[in-house]
Amino acid sequence: MIPLNKAVTENAGEALENDSSFRPLPSNGICTRLGDKWTVQILWQLSIVSGRRLRFSALNRHIDGITQRMLTMTLRNLERDGLVVRHYYPEIPPRVEYELTELGSGILVALENLNLWLRTNMHYIDECRRAYDKAAV
């Protein structure tokens, strides 16, 4: 069983209800984008090379299983949302590099907190899944 402090949970819920600044997440597609299979992996890869840019081929090489088409589509969406900037160099052959924008770097703080929460609570989630699957049989 998950050890939850009921008083803390109830107080947090009351605080959110009484907080006039609290708003549910907007359905503007950003949450959907962050929840897809590839976006976070691309953002992580671009964050590893802080201050540098990555070429398309380097991203493709470092993200297992992503197709060129999916990488292209995801990068375009990230560029559209302002999280990534594309640098085009009209050389022969043409060179394209990608880097995180300030906005893109900012989302990494939230993702790092989510990652910490997942690592802290994954054993509870696994326990709940096992209990649910056992009861469903």
Describe the protein's architecture and organization.
- By secondary structure, this protein is mainly alpha-helical.
- The chain has one domain (25-136): Orthogonal Bundle (Arc Repressor Mutant, subunit A), CATH 1.10.10.
- Helix content is 61%, strand content 10%.
- It contains 6 helices and 3 strands.
- Strands 1-3-2 form a 3-stranded antiparallel β-sheet.
- A hairpin with a 5-residue loop joins strand 2 and strand 3 (95-100).
- Helix 3 packs across helix 6 (102-136).
- The longest helix is centred in the last third of the chain and has 35 residues, at 102-136.
- Mean pLDDT is 84; it is low at 1-9.
- Keywords: DNA-binding, Transcription, Transcription regulation.
- Pfam families: HxlR.
- This is HxlR family transcriptional regulator.
Salient structural properties:
single chain, about 140 residues, Arc Repressor Mutant, subunit A, 3 strands, about 60% helix, globular
Helix content: 55-70%
The CATH topology annotation reads as: Arc Repressor Mutant, subunit A
- What's the N-to-C terminus distance? 19 Å
Point out poorly predicted stretches: 1-9
- Computed structural class: mainly alpha
- Percentage of β-strand residues: 5-15%
- What value does the Rg take, in angstroms? 20 Å
Report on the biggest sheet.
3 strands, antiparallel
What is the correct CATH architecture?
Orthogonal Bundle
The order of strands across the largest sheet is: 1-3-2
Per CATH, the superfamily is: Winged helix-like DNA-binding domain superfamily/Winged helix DNA-binding domain
The helix/strand series, from N terminus to C terminus, equals HHHEHHEEH
As for the number of domains, it is 1
Classified by CATH, the class is: Mainly Alpha
Shape: globular
- How confident is the prediction overall: mean pLDDT? 84
